[in-house]
Amino acid sequence: MEDMERPSLGQMILLASSSAITAIFYTVYCQKYRTAQTLKGAKRISLDDELQNFLMDLPGKCVPYAVIEGVVRAAKDSLSSQFMDSCKGVIHRLSLKEHKMVWNRTTHLWNDHEKIIHQRTNSVPFDLVREDPDTSSLAVRVIKPLEATELDLETVYEKFHPAVQSFTNALGHLLTGERPKGIQETEEMLKIGATVTGVGELVLDNKMIKLQPPKAGMQYYLSKLDFDSLVQRSESDARKWKVLCLLCGAATCLSLFFILRRQYRHYKEKQRLKRLQQELKDTRARLGDDESEETRNSCIICLANQKSSVFLECGHVCSCFQCYQALPEPKKCPICRNTISRVVPLYNS
Question: CB-based contacts of 64: which residues, under 8 Å, 6+ apart?
């Protein structure tokens, strides 16, 4: 009797791959969920004249994770746009992005491809103040704004410079598999007067209130969205990864179910054949050495009819034709478990 059939290589690869992807999705989901819950639990602080006294009474004179909503104001000098007159800000970013078509040798299609070939970001010290700064001199200095996980910059200028094409260049592009489309020039700024939601560590340092990157495990935000919208987007991002994790987990469970069901069916069939062989052995033991030729030629399955079928290609003669027809598909020899390709009738003279 052969050993229990093992899962195929393809089934094992499918199960291992889906399990690994599920684990990755679950890890990302847990991280996104923790980030959303941490952001949701941030303390909202109002920009009022009592803020300094409020921080003075706290341990360490800081709020570990605080939310500040205010208007951007340059602390000293400001940055000017290179292309737009009278456009000033505190963070300036200039990007050059190359657009080209790349030939995919697998799909035999041209695909869009983008690559940043140059990017320069400048910043100057700036504060967050109330929308009506004339009624209060309170300001919160933003520290290390470029380290923010989310830094919303407004696009103030954008221009696409198409690539110059010639016959020689076109021929070279076909040979190399790359066809340039052009260069996109983009200028982004955090403009003075923009309303920003800052989330980070709020600390009082030498009578100056600072918003700086929080401790490890917390995200630093400088977003144009209000705090409620920022929380909703973070929770939506976590739910998206949760759905992906559930779908991939369901596929893993389904694959495991089919593999186990196949193994169970194989085990039950093996037990049935063992039981039949044991019954045949017991019957022969009861009959003894003087059993008749008719008994020796009886079907090993039903033990009633005479053996009347030759199984090919293995050549075993062990059952009657009625029991052969009752074998489950795909039909296999009860003796050696090889697949039966055809049956030849056996005539006893």
Answer: 201, 214, 215, 218
Arithmetic mean of pLDDT, 64-82: 91
Instruction: Compute the distance between CA of residue 311 and CA of residue 340 in angstroms, rounded to an integer.
Output: 6
Lowest-confidence region among 41-55, 61-75, 124-138, 190-204: 124-138
Burial class (CB in 10 A: 0-12, 13-18, 19+), 99: middle
What is the helix (H) or strand (E) element at residue 278, kind and residue range? helix 227-287
Q: Which amino acid is at 277?
A: Q
Amino acid at 152: D
Which residue(s) pair with 214 in the sheet? none
Question: pTM value?
Answer: 0.67
**What residues form DSSP beta bridges with 188?**
93, 155
In the chain, where the domains are located: 1-40+228-291, 62-224, 292-345
pLDDT, position 293? 55
**pLDDT single digits (tens) 267-301:** 888 888 888 888 878 877 776 554 555 566 788 88
Gap between the Cα atoms of 310 and 211, Å rounded: 88
| Cα separation, 118 vs 98, whole angstroms | 9
Give, as one character, the DSSP assignment of residue 3: P
Distance CA 34, CA 235 (A): 10
The answer to whether residues 39 and 199 touch, using CB atoms and an 8 Å cutoff, is yes
Name the percent of the chain lying above pLDDT 70.
93
Q: Report the half-sphere exposure of 137 (CA within 13 A, side-chain side).
A: 2
Kindly list the strands in the beta sheet with 342-345, ordered across the sheet, starting from the edge strand earlier in the chain.
Answer: 317-319, 309-312, 342-345
Whether pLDDT at 2 is above 60: no
For strands 43-45 and 140-142, give the pairing. Answer: unpaired
pLDDT tens digits for range 100-112 = 888 888 888 888 8
Geometric angle at alpha carbon 40, from 231 and 208, rounded to 5°: 100
| Predicted pLDDT at 1 | 38
Structure tokens at 150: 């989310």
Closest by CA to 152, choosing from 222, 74, 93, 231, is: 222
Q: At what angle do helices 227-287 and 9-40 cross, to 10 degrees?
A: 150
Return the CATH fold of 292-345.
Herpes Virus-1 (3.30.40)
